[in-house]
Amino acid sequence: MDKQIQPVTRLTGEVSVPGDKSISHRAVMFGALADGVTRVTGFLPGADCLSTVDCFRKLGVQIEQHSPTELSVHGVGLDGLQEPTDVLDVGNSGTTARLMLGILAGQSFHCTVTGDASIRKRPMGRVAGPLREMGARIEGRDGGRLAPLSVRGGGLQAFRYDSPVASAQVKSGILLAGLFAEGATGVREPEPSRDHTERMLQAFGVVVEDREGYITVQGGSRLTATDIEVPGDISSAAFLLVAAAIVPGSDVTIRGVGLNPTRTGILDVLLDMGAQIEVVNERQAGGEPVADLRVRGSRLRATTVRGAIIPRLIDEVPVLAVAATQAEGVTEIRDAAELKVKESNRIATTANELRKFGAIVEELEDGLRIHGGAQLQGGAVIETHHDHRIAMSMAVAALVANGATTIRDWESVDVSFPGFAELFQNL
Ligand code: S3P
């Protein structure tokens, strides 16, 4: 479906964004493995998280959906999952694939995991490899690195893993397998990635320790059901933050945004670029810090983004590049080669699609160089490459173009932000 986006004169009002995607996935998975019933509120009813619900139902878990955002997950305990009678289809969701592989590695039954065309190109060896070292049998295309993957787990040995990438999906996959292994399993990363798994496992009563720099869980630790209140997704709020910052005269308040410090890189960078953002009403929800964010139209200046902050804003790079087109000076984003293996190659897709607006953007081996101060041109026809964050980032760019923009395959937005267009319309 094509979407036409018209430029706007300003954005004003108060909104909330949908629930955090990372936390919603984990609430379903950990609830499934727990003893007792986990009630989830603020769940993200996006396609990715619904894929997780579907897969865990196929694994024999009863999940009641009381409303789009409220679930009850009837946990089956650590040893209660059942062999599925069909293939487990994760759709577009890398998080479902990699975390679930960790859980499946601990099961003695057989199953097959697949997903859409994008998932079948994304590297699964980064999690399948260490899981094999723990004792799981995982086979698939390209020497077992690409889905569809067939898994027969069980009999796992504990493991200490030095991950070559800062990836919460890899870390979480190994730690979840560690729950089913004999002994203590630990993961060390080159830079800290998002820590929702560690926080939520603790909320479910599992001891998670730092042992000599390895985040460690003890095999056989049981999870006790709990209630999870999912905060708003800062990765979704990022589209509003950038939009309100680059459209002059805007004044937008976003309520209830999760501000886990492993996720707030986008705030740090926008503040550094001169964006007027106030953090108000700070509180805790479900073991995570939450606040309201007020953002106003601002004059932005260029910046350099590299190093340890990259994992803290990895999903926000495309929309950050949009902000950079409106900043004074040249912005560089480096150390972000991971972008090449996201839902699309986001270095290439961000550069190519922004160029259609007339922006000057250079593709680098590990990032982007964006020349700011551009008047974006109307008339662009954007290819989203079925990547939700490319679709939404280009929609934000379209707000400051001097004519209408067409975005192809708009439905990909539903992966993480159902209601995106309506929410912007209300502002
Ligand atoms: C996620 C981790 C990140 C992120 C993804 C969600 C998670 O991926 O890009 O959107 O929920 O653990 P990587 O682990 O591949 O960095």
TrEMBL record:
Single GO term (MF): 3-phosphoshikimate 1-carboxyvinyltransferase activity
Superkingdom of the source species: Bacteria
Predominant location: cytoplasm
EC identifiers of the protein: 2.5.1.19
Domain Enolpyruvate transferase: start-end pairs: 6-422
This protein's pathway: Metabolic intermediate biosynthesis; chorismate biosynthesis; chorismate from D-erythrose 4-phosphate and phosphoenolpyruvate: step 6/7
UniProt: phosphoenolpyruvate binding residues: K21, G94, R122, Q169, R346, R389
Keyword terms, alphabetized: Amino-acid biosynthesis, Aromatic amino acid biosynthesis, Cytoplasm, Transferase
Gene Ontology biological process terms in this record: amino acid biosynthetic process; aromatic amino acid family biosynthetic process; chorismate biosynthetic process
Location(s) in or outside the cell: Cytoplasm
Enzyme's top EC category: transferase
Residues given in the record as 3-phosphoshikimate binding sites: K21, S22, R26, S167, Q169, D315, K342
Active site: D315
Cross-referenced Gene3D superfamilies: Enolpyruvate transferase domain (3.65.10.10)
Pfam families according to UniProt: EPSP_synthase
SUPFAM superfamilies linked to this entry: EPT/RTPC-like
Catalysis: reaction(s): 3-phosphoshikimate + phosphoenolpyruvate = 5-O-(1-carboxyvinyl)-3-phosphoshikimate + phosphate
InterPro entries given in the database record: Enolpyruvate_Tfrase_dom, Enolpyruvate_Tfrase_sf, EPSP_synthase, EPSP_synthase_CS, RNA3'P_cycl/enolpyr_Trfase_a/b
GO terms under cellular component: cytoplasm
Function per UniProt: Catalyzes the transfer of the enolpyruvyl moiety of phosphoenolpyruvate (PEP) to the 5-hydroxyl of shikimate-3-phosphate (S3P) to produce enolpyruvyl shikimate-3-phosphate and inorganic phosphate.
Family: Belongs to the EPSP synthase family.
Subunit structure comment from the entry: Monomer.
Protein name: 3-phosphoshikimate 1-carboxyvinyltransferase
Organism: Tumebacillus permanentifrigoris
Taxonomy of the source species: Bacteria, Bacillati, Bacillota, Bacilli, Bacillales
Gene giving rise to this polypeptide: aroA
